[in-house]
Amino acid sequence: MANKKDNRSLGKLTPAINVDDVRLLAQRRLPKFIFDYLDGGADDEYTRRENPDSFRALSLIQRVLIDVGNIDTSTTILGMPTSVPFILSSTGASRFYHSDGELAVARAAAQSNVIYGTTSSAMYSLEDVAAVAPSPRFFQVYVFKDREVTREIISRCKASNYDAMFLTVDCSTAGNRERDIRNQLSIPPKITPRILWQLLNAMPWTIDYLTHSKWRFPNIEEYVDNSTMGDFDSAAEWFADQLDTSFTWEDAAALRSDWGGQFVIKGITSVEDAKLAAEIGATGIVVSNHGGRQLDHAPTTLEVLPEIIEAVGDRLEVLVDSGYRRGTDIIKALALGAKGVLLGKAYLYGLGAGGEAGVTRVVDILRGELERDMTLLGLTSIDQITSDCVRWRDPRFLR
Ligand SMILES: Cc1cc2nc3c(=O)[nH]c(=O)nc-3n(C[C@H](O)[C@H](O)[C@H](O)COP(=O)(O)O)c2cc1C
Fold first, then answer.
1. Going by C-beta distance under 8 Å and a sequence separation of 6 or more, which residues neighbour residue 189?
2. What are the CB-based long-range contacts (under 8 Å, 24+) for 295-299?
3. pLDDT at position 302, please?
């Protein structure tokens, strides 16, 4: 339930009628170094910009004079029920945006009957998130140098009844996020005159930060040395230092059998890797360029989705993310054969703008768009979204 404080921020959310509006509200509430971490991409941010722009390449084909009195947006993802074909993806360090962090996201998701996936790099423990998030619950692992960490996390997830394990594979090192380097992003923030100025210009956020317990990474802090953070110039450098760069497909296969349940490889952009994921017995993949935060000039997901679905669509479930912020974007991915869409920045803008109420607002906005778009397209259920609903736009009309 949104508390009194969140209801006040809900008032501030009133003018937000789409995800881009919520983004602007987040930009207003968050100090610049935090907003940049949320919003930024790698290198020149080419892929980060192309992601939302890529949807222009597909047109939607409308069918009319159909009874669209009852629209049902519910579906299943990895066999689990959800009220919408999108899930709130794993994004680390969510207390950056609001002191309630992952708990706010989990509560908003549960209230809206939407699936949320927390992560190894969360700022609330997987047990605390499980306590507020009814099933289905998803978890995402990174593989740290100490392999024991991953094994431990897997058994903790089993004990807390998580339903699906996502292994993120596009982070063999941290992406080159130049906004963060310029901002000297560190945990906790180093108070330079510039950062102090940003904090003073974001007083509601700063008060929230100062009046709550200090930032921690409870899923991993027993195993990785948090105290070494100050030895690195940035949080990204610290994170990169912890990651296991020697992890291979064989190790992924072992992890899959260790887990034993729904196992999804997140961060696939090539047909060859999609086939390898199917070969090791993954039950799903996420076609993803990590929102443009890792390898700049990675393809947008719409570019590669059709060939990946063609190659492995009959062997595992194909999910997709990166740049989705409109109901029409989600419909286009489903029309190309994806079973569901993961959201990253879209719901984090909500968290940054207004905590739990902000996340709920983003879910409501997207659900509303989806319903309206399906109505206009003459579609009453998610399974009616097929390749007949889209066509590639004639390049002569693409600006
Ligand atoms: C601030 C931020 C933190 C993220 N942290 C993680 C993470 O810890 N693990 C992970 O697998 N993906 C992480 N991601 C990637 C998202 O799960 C998702 O793949 C991506 O955000 C989708 O693109 P979008 O932001 O354009 O929706 C993060 C994304 C953002 C924006």
1. 33, 195, 199
2. 295/42, 295/47, 295/170, 295/175, 296/41, 296/42, 296/43, 296/44, 296/45, 296/46, 296/47, 296/48, 296/175, 296/176, 297/43, 297/46, 297/47, 298/47, 298/170, 298/269, 299/47, 299/269
3. 95
CB 145 within 8 A of CB 244: yes
Which position has the token pair 């996420």? 286
Q: Are 264 and 165 in contact (CB under 8 A)?
A: yes
User: Band of the pLDDT at 146, cuts 50, 70, 90?
Assistant: confident
Distance (Å) from CA 292 to ligand 1 centroid: 9
* Cα separation, 184 vs 74, whole angstroms: 43
| Active site annotation includes 98 | no
Tell me the pTM: 0.94
SS3 of residue 166 by DSSP:
strand
- Nearest atom in ligand 1 to 121's CA: 8
Mean model confidence pLDDT for the chain: 92
Q: How far apart are CA 136 and CA 151, in angstroms?
A: 21
Segment 270-317, tens digit of pLDDT:
999 999 999 999 999 999 999 999 999 999 999 999 999 999 999 999
Ligand 1, CB within 6 Å, residue ranges: 38, 51, 89-92, 119, 121, 140, 168, 266, 288, 290-291, 293, 321-324, 342-346, 348
Percent of the chain topping pLDDT 70: 93
Task: Answer yes or no: is pLDDT of 321 > 60.
Answer: yes
| pLDDT classification of 2: cutoffs 50, 70, 90 | very low
Instruction: Give the domain ranges of the chain.
Output: 4-386
Q: What pLDDT does 25 receive?
A: 96
Mean of pLDDT values over 228-250: 74
Question: Closest Cα to atom 27, ligand 1: which residue?
Answer: 344
The one-character DSSP state at 225 is -
Ligand 1: residue whose CA is nearest its atom 16: 344
Q: Give, using CA atoms, the residue closest to atom 14 of ligand 1.
A: 91
Whole-number Å distance, alpha carbon 351 to ligand 1 midpoint, is: 14
Indicate the CATH number of 4-386 among 3.30.70.260, 3.20.20.70, 3.90.226.10, 3.30.930.10: 3.20.20.70
